[in-house]
Amino acid sequence: xxxxxxxxxxxxxxxxxxxxxxxxxxxxxxxxxxxxxxxxxxxxxxxxxxxxxxxxxxxxxxxxxxxxxxxxxxxxxxxxxxxxxxxxxxxxxxxxxxxxxxxxxxxxxxxxxxxxxxxxxxxxxxxxxxxxxxxxxxxxxxxxxxxxxxxxxxxxxxxxxxxxxxxxxxxxxxxxxxxxxxxxxxxxxxxxxxxxxxxxxxxxxxxxxxxxxxxxxxxxxxxxxxxxxxxxxxxxxxxxxxxxxxxxxxxxxxxxx
Amino acid sequence: xxxxxxxxxxxxxxxxxxxxxxxxxxxxxxxxxxxxxxxxxxxxxxxxxxxxxxxxxxxxxxxxxxxxxxxxxxxxxxxxxxxxxxxxxxxxxxxxxxxxxxxxxxxxxxxxxxxxxxxxxxxxxxxxxxxxxxxxxxxxxxxxxxxxxxxxxxxxxxxxxxxxxxxxxxxxxxxxxxxxxxxxxxxxxxxxxxxxxxxxxxxxxxxxxxxxxxxxxxxxxxxxxxxxxxxxxxxxxxxxxxxxxxxxxxxxxxxxxxxxxxxxxxxxxxxxxxxxxxxxxxxxxxxxxxxxxxxxxxxxxxxxxxxxxxxxxxxxxxxxxxxxxxxxxxxxxxxxxxxxxxxxxxxxxxxxxxxxxxxxxxxxxxxxxxxxxxxxxxxxxxxxxxxxxxxxxx
Lengths: 257, 394
Fold this sequence. Notes:
The structure holds two protein chains of two kinds. The radius of gyration of chain A is 17 Å and the shape is globular. Chain A has one domain (14-254): TIM Barrel (Alpha-Beta Barrel). In chain A, helix 10 (188-199) links the parallel strand 7 (171-174) and strand 8. Chain A contains 13 helices and nine strands. Helix content of chain A is 49%, strand content 15%. Chain A has helices at 4-11, 30-39, 59-71, 75-81, 85-88, 99-105, 107-117, 129-142, 157-166, 188-199, 215-224, 232-240, 244-254; strands at 15-21, 44-49, 93-97, 121-123, 146-148, 150-151, 171-174, 206-209, 227-230. By secondary structure, chain B is α/β, with parallel strands linked by helices. Chain B has two domains: 20-51 and 90-204, Rossmann fold, CATH 3.40.50; 57-88 and 209-391, Rossmann fold (3-Layer(aba) Sandwich). Helices cover 42% and strands 18% of the residues of chain B. At the A-B interface, helix 3, helix 6 and strand 6 of A face helix 1, helix 8 and strand 11 of B.
């Protein structure tokens, strides 16, 4: 199947995927920030659905999630905000969120809405693979959504092979045993893990995320994968300066035009 | 196989499962694939039973509460979990889990705690086994449960305040899970209730099931039957209730009664009565009944009792509620305090405010005079003196 996610991996190298929380710093910033990121030549977007209990996230994304919820962000509102997404944004867009708000919205309805507004994929860190395959995969397929799975340094070889076989789009490689934003720099142990996965010659492209924060870590990750995902560092940028100029400067500090 | 046993995939009816980020999968899978073999082995059982007897002080008495029985016109037995070492049933589980952690070669222990009872019980067994202990406690409770914080520190534990989110028990659990994600290799997470991803609810229920095992045995010596007409217990996450119900789950003659915290009242927005105002959702690794907004954000609970101040219940209890096997009552702060003082004056036992919620149910059920009622007195009230004093009506 040819879609925006698959196309971008064919067309570009060193994919820069930027995460930001919907409804942060201000409730109506979501589409404006997406547009600014596209203009700054980011390759892919990951829009976070805020949740009250984000167990895989560090302090930065916890903070942005809480702020977004305090601002009044909901999934229903997010789909309204993204109504005109495809008039402004041509790059692939993923929604990232914990399962509970999606369950309450209704998974089938969620998938339909994603397709309607032009979302290409989803990352739901606490939706177990088996539950996905047994109960929900058909909704995602019907809506032509790529559900992205994570692997970590402790994921077994056998399990990585299974994940590769059911993945479309890409595999999200968690850079170390950690929550988001936790560490700076890349350690020797991580490089060994990157190389180990590289040597497995998986079918799916790989993006590395968690702890990728600047040009140095982005470049290092891109040497061993097809690119990387930056989240907390961009949220920190938004906290400091969420203007279009600030966003452009941040992106260009990582990946030149 | 009982319909109330956990399924191979970790479900009780529609509830349970293991909704965890991939980073925790290897840890939880290690537990899942090993726990049954380890805890049913003779070697483990011997160690577990010996520690329960010589260290915890089991069996705990099944006490016939004469004056309380007269007041309610029925026969009331109190299962005295409050007499366990550390003052509550929580230690049954921490002994079991630390033995399991040792068998799995773990060196460090993390735990979350609300009232501090589970934190103390964990710090205690860590001291016993010479293992490093980190306890996550919500910030507000570090004031409300100060004596337990200091107890944990005296026992050598590192107590960290959960300052993220809304700083409550669910946030202490979030923090403990984050710590586990960051330290997956040498650390075991001792969850204190029948919540969390499979196999935790089943594992904790098995360790606590010693309560109902003893009730059966003790009852058979003083009554004609080893089955009571009622078993009553309070439910926050639900570990003491799971233990007290366990061996009666398939005995339909035994009515299972769960007392939830209604806080200021279930209509007030300040309660923790999950089965009354919650609906199915996913928190802390399992699908269960959950207090949440229509958008799926978890709602802040309220209860005067820190141990019941949790927005969910264990998946077993969600299933017991759903299948109507157990009957749930919502007890307000005020009703619990009155019942706590009543037990103190009638029987000379000051109960934990959690357990006082179970006592308050006595006033809500019309018992027959020949009914045998077993009430699980899960903890003692020493830790709650401040709350009793503040309430003042005694």
